[in-house]
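Duplicate of earlier report; DUF7079 domain-containing protein input re-posted below.
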Amino acid sequence: MSSPHDNMNDPQRLLDHRRDLWMALAPLWLDREPGERDYAHMADVIEQYDFTTDELERIYRVEMSPVLVRHQVSLAGEWRAFDEDRLLRQLTFHVWKLTRWRRGFWLLFSGLTTMMTRHRYNMLMEVVITRRQAGT
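Output:
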């Protein structure tokens, strides 16, 4: 199932469209547990987009997790903060080269790539869904 958000063949356009969302969600992979303010900020940024919860799940599992899990498991990984430019380049390149086969591969293995952050993502989605329900 594709959405208008998937039609991003230009890396700069992709980066322009995803930058704020990616940077808001990146702290899910840091070594510290996000606090209430962190989750509120992430939810604020998500509200600026019209992604469904299914689309957000795909962004988390297929776009972000394959890149960010490498930082988590690396001995020289970035645990306190990310080099924003480097991270955005990595995410843009990863997403830009996603073929149908690669999307399927990352969906298949997303349980492994998301296992250390799943509880954080689920808490974030509770905040997002609660806000959306309160707004309707």
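The mean pLDDT is 87.

Merging into the original ticket.
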